[in-house]
Amino acid sequence: MATLADPATQFTRMPHPAPTAAEVRAAVLADPGFGKAFSDHMVTIDWEEGKGWHNPAIGPRGPLSLDPAAAVLHYAQEIFEGLKAYRLGDGSMALFRPQANAARFNASAERLAMPALPEAMFVDAIKELVRADADWFPTVEGGSLYLRPFMIATEAFLGVRPAKSYKFIVIASPAGNYFKSGAPAVSIWVSDYTRAAPGGTGAAKCGGNYAASLVPTAEAFERGHDQVLFLDAAEHKWIEELGGMNLFFAFDDGRLITPPLNGTILPGITRDSLLALAREEGLAVSEEPYSLDAWRDDAASGKLVEAFACGTAAVVTPVGKVADRNGEFIIGSGGPGQLTGKLKARLVAIQRGEAPDPHGWVVRL
What we know:
Pfam families: Aminotran_4. This protein has helices spanning 22-30, 71-75, 98-111, 119-132, 207-222, 269-280, 292-301, 338-351, and strands spanning 2-3, 10-13, 41-48, 52-60, 78-80, 83-87, 93-96, 144-153, 165-175, 186-190, 227-231, 239-242, 246-251, 255-258, 284-287, 304-311, 315-324, 327-330, 362-364. With 365 residues, the protein is an alpha+beta fold. The chain has two domains: 2-177, D-amino Acid Aminotransferase, Chain A, domain 1; 186-351, Alpha-Beta Barrel (D-amino Acid Aminotransferase, Chain A, domain 2). It is globular.
């Protein structure tokens, strides 16, 4: 048994019989892309009704064994998170706001009638995997180790009710740049589809939300755009979020706004971090509804000077062009803006230990 800093969590370690050869790993890390390659290990923890969380273990990453009647396959009881580990300048490793991911994970679990995982156990599981796969940090500029914690319902039962058994798993993937287009700013397509409705699961990070976005995202790609934008379900007027990122809008009078968290938008941790940094920059920051028509008009008048998307995978990404069935419009010069670059630089510097961290966001391993 190997004990972490928190004595409440002990992980059984299972040695890997055939870890990836160093030369093969080096080739992967030189150009990892995003989500295509995976490290050697994974963490698993089981939950059963009446027993709770038990059997925390780390061992070789490999296929899962599930009964064909497992509830996750029929009723989509599944949630996940996404966060990154970084190799700092002094060679040490660090996580960015893992406690926030743990809290959001449990909020998603509550919405999908799944058991809460103690936040300390969530963070310990992440740390355990990063330590085990410390050789998997990419060598490319801006590279990181992307971490995917998730939970699935494993009980074999076809009745419609919450399952009585679950498995929590963490896997890791070396990550380079999320967008491969090479454009200085992304182009987005406004979808006619709806991502989430009031009272639904829009604020939960569950697979069903992303499955519903695949057709509109494919439509955006087919039309030559990088991402898809969803409007509200009731009026199809108000901007909500992209397929996997939150949005910000910067104006010529120093205002910065982002759509409010109304239950249909994922409460992004990058979003929350940027709100704090923007306020420190002295900007007039607000969370308020913003319509597509207003976006189009403000871009045409020059009142809106920048727009950017944000999320764990892509960090901060300028939005240069927006298109729908009525035409398209350009934001600013169509490229990266000064504020977007400044906020991204500040955030990345904190994440990588290159700047002071007054908020205590960086957790060193």
